[in-house]
Amino acid sequence: MQVFHTESKIIITCNKRLSPYLQQEVEALGYEPTRVFNTGVELQGTVTDTIPLNLNLRCGSQVLYLLKAFIANDPAELYNELVTIEWEKLIDFAGYFSVTSNVNNEHILTPLFANVKVKDAIVDRIKSIKGIRPNSGPEVNKTVVHLYWQDNRAEIFLDTSGETLAKHSYRKIPGKAPMLEALATSTIMATNWDRKSTFINPMCGSGTLAIEAALLATDKYPGLFRMNYGFMHLSGYDETVFFAERRALKDKAKKETSFKIIATDISADAVDVARKNAKTAGVEHLIDFAVCDFEETDVPAEPGIVMFNPEYGERLGVHTKLEMTYKRVGDFLKKKCLGYRGYVFTGNPDLAKKIGLRAARKIEFYNGKLDCRLFEYELYQGSKREPKPEN
Ligand SMILES: C[S@@+](CC[C@H](N)C(=O)[O-])C[C@H]1O[C@@H](n2cnc3c(N)ncnc32)[C@H](O)[C@@H]1O
């Protein structure tokens, strides 16, 4: 099976509500999506096409290549279809593979059962032909096979990513309540920031927003930080394509920016973590870090974007204190950030009201399972205040 040279359906998955940003990235790479849905983008391509996708995408999670779509009413039918696939031409018979799944079928009470059925079909097939079987287990750092099974419609994919792409490999120390890197990038993309004007991130925590902003501005892509992907473990893999793509990423990356990125936090520990993460990402020199209350953050005269991700009571903090904090954030934006566009990412709409400014846009996101918004504020002289609720 020449998967590296045979076109098939490719599904790039992403966290809920990130697909508009993923679509932009896919199109910028020159691919034409055939479908965009809430948790992904679909296109046509070969496993070779998945190499640049895996190395370049910031907003995606997994790049899946369709091997076969079929009807399966129950586990026995699933097995019978899967055992006909030439797994011996895809998976190293002395190697290791794992199975992941997204299943909604009346016969399957736990996804683990479906995974075992897939594993059995692969192992039985390879053993009957090669006389030896590959190992399998939960680690997703070698060959990964993904089953999508809704009612009686089944699709079996090669997961060419393996470990998720949504983490960008530079964050060695997570900090408290960090944003997922793919989410952080998507929120920055949602601001339409020009990538050449000031970017301020008070309350930076582990630094994800500031670091992602620096990576976007310098054209540094996640593939620069990662050397292992699912596609590398498939039979027929030719490493020259991967190394050529990596070389192109290195050539494209800029070293400097002509504007400031500022990141501050009241916690010295958080700033220390943010600095270390920025160093791993190779952008420490582009970010001015400081330990201070957000109100003391330096706001350069040349305007740009100021972006907050305050605590919102779901995982950290206490509400009454947070109400004051949100009010102070609003005051800071109104008084100190004139000419900027202000953004607050939060999962708590009641707290957001305390900001006291009328949002020009409320952009929908999820943080994990929590419904969140990115509030946008135009901070020009005489910014509109949120009208006082009528008594
Ligand atoms: C939700 S976390 C930010 C997480 C961050 N986006 C990340 O990806 O790691 C909120 C941060 O606000 C900081 N913080 C809370 N009150 C602050 C204040 N008054 N001034 C500055 N930072 C504050 C906390 O120390 C915490 O690091």
User: How would you describe the shape?
Assistant: elongated
Average pLDDT number: 94
Number of strands: 15
Number of domains: 2
- CATH class value of the largest domain: Alpha Beta
Number of helices: 10
Percent range of helical residues: 25-40%
Strand share of the residues? Answer: 15-25%
Measured on Cα atoms, how large is the radius of gyration?
23 Å
Structural class: alpha/beta
Distance between the termini: 70 Å
GO molecular function, one term: rRNA (guanine-N2-)-methyltransferase activity
Keywords: Methyltransferase, Transferase
InterPro entries: RlmKL-like_Mtase (IPR000241), RlmL_1st (IPR054170), SAM-dependent_MTases_sf (IPR029063), THUMP_dom (IPR004114)
Domain Ribosomal RNA large subunit methyltransferase K/L-like methyltransferase: 169-374
Architecture blueprint of SSEs:
Blueprint (H helix, E strand, L loop, with lengths): L7 E6 L5 H10 L6 E3 L2 E6 L1 H10 L6 E9 L3 H8 L13 E9 L6 H20 L4 E2 L6 E8 L2 E7 L21 H10 L7 E4 L6 H10 L21 H14 L8 E5 L2 H13 L6 E5 L12 E5 L10 H18 L4 E6 L2 H5 L7 E7 L2 E9 L13
Parallel strand pairs: 5-6, 5-7, 9-10, 9-12, 10-11, 12-13
Antiparallel strand pairs: 1-3, 1-4, 2-3, 4-8, 7-8, 13-15, 14-15
Helix pairs in contact: 2-7, 3-4, 5-6
This protein binds S-adenosylmethionine.
